[in-house]
């Protein structure tokens, strides 16, 4: 159950369900008329990846994301950059991922690209504020303008380029004029209007001017009202095949999860704040998957694990959770963020990140081009790995996933401290109360239980440090310089307040115990900590298209076929889960790959001959428990590995008991 009630108990070694308190405005600063965020993300570049996370971002930079502008026409020749190709969302989407990627890696080549393209966009804005590369302002869907402001603001965070606030202000003034006197919101902008609140609030907090908030009210009035819609939500059933619609579009829904919290910053109405939890619970109940995302191929598709989830929805759900962590401070969003980041996100790419999917299935036993797939609206190639299967939006939008996750690992708290809201190896360089501080997070989490955190402070400084204790870690252990503190409560931000000086080591043991979750048709899924475990299937990759015209880049489309059986039911006894043996392997350069999986577990299962392939997907999963004649004779040992390490998998299994 999602927790919507704050706990603000602030002891020396205390508990904070989430940081639901706000700071006042300092003398001389702008008068801010919106609710303060509970947690403030650090400026882009303050957090740098290390270990496996650094390798993952390098793979992204060396793969599709880092090179699209060198060969793919929709980015290389984008009208946003002075060319004659796409003039709408694709270049802004790409920048939204490559801007943080460049500065997190401190990659000179990528930073040079980013600077070049930002300069072109800024130089092309006219005096009215119109920034999009189109002559047809009346019929232009201004969703792309909402979108382009996000990478510009990230660029400002990293560079303090003084042109950016002026550009954003002119953009917003143009939008204000346009929707007031020319044409109200329509199309994608009508359903994603709340994304503009990110830029509106940023400008308001920077300048203290009120007019951006008046614009927010106008956008809300003209935009689709997700709060009212979910109060009487009619989309509980899977979308009928071929019935595409904006309201059920999975990416719109993944984005809209944060809409009530953003709107609450303006209204202060607790009912708006609480709608976040109601929306998530409704989506989970009727369209949720074991990986923490919602199904949608492209529209909401129910709980059948053979239905897919669009990659754009995965990264947008992650971004929504990052915003929710900041605005509301509830650690439950950190649990969900990690679950998606460590399972659904990496599974959607080839191990070298030169190919990606459009649709990712929880039970994915074949990736091929076939007619009459199970999808609600997508095409026959939607789950192959390639350059732009089905539609090219994910080709550019997937790039925000890993970089924004990295940039939101740590945040400032309203009482002058710092909070770890998600865990991965990184180094944080910032200051607290004008004192420089460096934090080194040394860990192979989520593949291991241990997280070491070194706090290095040059001068003795008193401040609170908050550590998110996942809801699944019932008896976590924390030690500070070898001294046992106590087992902190699960599902909280655990507060350590002390005077810090020199190097202090915090050792955390986040105990991961296996558990079974019940899914569609009473199927079972095995979870341990933030990881989902899936059947390891031998993969046969078949290249079906090469893009020779793209100048030597390893761009290709691939089908993937199973070379070992997949249709098993599991024998998992909840009372004996503690007897499962999880085997660790050394961490390699590509832990999110079948061959590089750093942990595995062996379980017993039996083939279900009646469960077969249908049009390239696993057929309807049998209702559990399933009966197998002479079961003991047919049991075999199966290897499960983390979901994020697979390309073919079964993660929701029929149960033998």
Task: Report on the architecture of this protein.
The protein is of the alpha+beta class. The protein contains 19 helices and 25 strands. Strands 1, 2, 3, 4, 7, 8, 9, 10, 11, 12, 13 and 14 form a 12-stranded mixed sheet that branches. Strands 15, 16, 17, 20, 21, 22 and 25 form a 7-stranded antiparallel sheet that branches. A hairpin with a 3-residue loop joins strand 1 (8-9) and strand 2. Residues 1-28 have low confidence and may be disordered.
**Which class do the helix and strand fractions yield?**
alpha+beta
Task: List the uncertain runs.
Answer: 1-28
Main sheet attributes: strand count, strand direction, barrel closure: 12 strands, mixed
| Approximate shape | globular
Mean pLDDT: 94
E-strand count? 25
- Tally the helices: 19
Helix content: 25-40%
Share of residues in strands: 15-25%
Secondary-structure topology with pairs:
Blueprint: E1 8-9, E2 13-16, E3 39-41, E4 47-49, H1 51-62, H2 64-71, H3 73-76, H4 90-105, H5 108-123, H6 143-159, H7 163-181, H8 187-191, H9 196-207, H10 211-222, H11 226-231, H12 250-256, H13 259-267, H14 270-287, E5 308-310, H15 311-328, H16 332-347, E6 359-361, H17 393-397, H18 401-407, E7 410-413, E8 418-420, E9 426-432, E10 435-443, E11 450-469, E12 477-480, E13 483-484, E14 492-509, E15 514-518, E16 524-528, E17 531-535, E18 539-546, E19 556-562, E20 568-571, E21 582-584, E22 599-607, E23 613-614, E24 617-618, H19 631-634, E25 636-642
Parallel strand pairs: 8-11
Antiparallel strand pairs: 1-2, 2-14, 3-7, 4-9, 5-6, 7-8, 9-10, 10-11, 11-14, 12-13, 12-14, 15-16, 16-17, 17-25, 18-19, 20-22, 21-22, 22-25, 23-24
